Amino acid sequence: MVIESINRLTERIVSETIPKNNRRLVNMILSENISEKEFDEFLAEWDVENNGATGALQMTFLVESHPELTFPNGFYEELKRHLGFYIWKRSEFQKNCPVILDALLKAGIVSSLFKGSELFLTNPSILLEMRDVDVIVIKSRWKEAGKIISKLGYEIVNWDNHSFDVHVKGDCHGLIDVHRYFPPISGKERKIMKDVLSRTREASLFGVSCRTLCPEDLVFTYLGNLYRNLTECRRPQSLPCNIINIGKILKTSKEFDWRIVKNDALLTGTGENIAFAINYVNAVVPGMLPQYLLSGLDRIGDMVAFRRYILCYLQARSHGLKVKTIMKKPELIPAFLKIRPLYTVLKLLRKSQWIARLSLRLARRLKGFSI
Hints:
Elements: H1 2-17, H2 20-30, H3 36-45, H4 48-65, H5 75-80, H6 84-106, E1 112-114, E2 133-136, H7 142-151, E3 155-157, E4 163-167, E5 174-179, H8 193-198, E6 201-205, E7 208-212, H9 215-231, H10 239-252, H11 258-268, H12 271-284, H13 301-319, H14 323-328, H15 333-348, H16 353-363
Parallel strand pairs: 1-7, 2-5
Antiparallel strand pairs: 1-2, 3-4, 4-5, 6-7
Helix pairs in contact: 1-12, 2-4, 2-10, 9-10, 9-11, 9-12, 11-12, 13-15, 13-16
């Protein structure tokens, strides 16, 4: 019964995050065979104007994975009209990443690619749904890496406990994220970094030597990132691309070892999170990932619903109620007192299963609140 409830929650989140036609496109991209009839029926319903840049990008993945399909005249030109940002981002990566990675390499700091940037290794001309290139460096030289990059004339922003962003000066768009740990989900990611870096493989990005995470660690990071994006209501446009990237890795890995993924999850305490991410992926592409990794799924449902439908809601409301705003608009004080303290307390206690269950029980009593 609990699993049925979690499956309903998963299906609800899938319907909120990936429209039905986009799900169909993801399945076609990852399918071994597509008939011309099936493709023509899909194109008859799919319109690039309605799907925008993200949809056009996903369609380029279909073109890449199924070159045998016949596309209508002018189709590629129509796609390119919507891909200007991604084309520009790739040119920025190609121009700046070799400069930065080469400077780090000359100082003896090796960069390991992950979170999508590794896909450039198989196809340097590919367009990717990425705001920046993500790399991991050894933690003992992470701060030194920032100083080296700064001396090159780049701007370092958002320097936090696990990573910093590199920007071209004056550009609001990120260029490279330099990590010393994986993006935090449980706070225990540093426990596996030594093993992760020991499994990296030699590579070359835009002509500069680097390394890339092994396929298993890449899939672990994708699944962890999926869970984070789903529960924090972040970047829904990236979700289909994450699933496609996982599918590509599995297709090209001859001896993929799921035991590594399971061990990463065990050591970081994210087994339940990974289980929900797998359930989500399988709801989009049935049977794509192994069911036996779903242990702990029965314990994660309340936490997912609490974070997505209560914390995210309160966070969105709270952002419009900053102190500076209240000082200018005193009429917002009652809303401020109602929302901000509650959000602050729940955010501090967000890891508590008991708080999650209690919050959901109370929220379900509210009129118009359905979870």
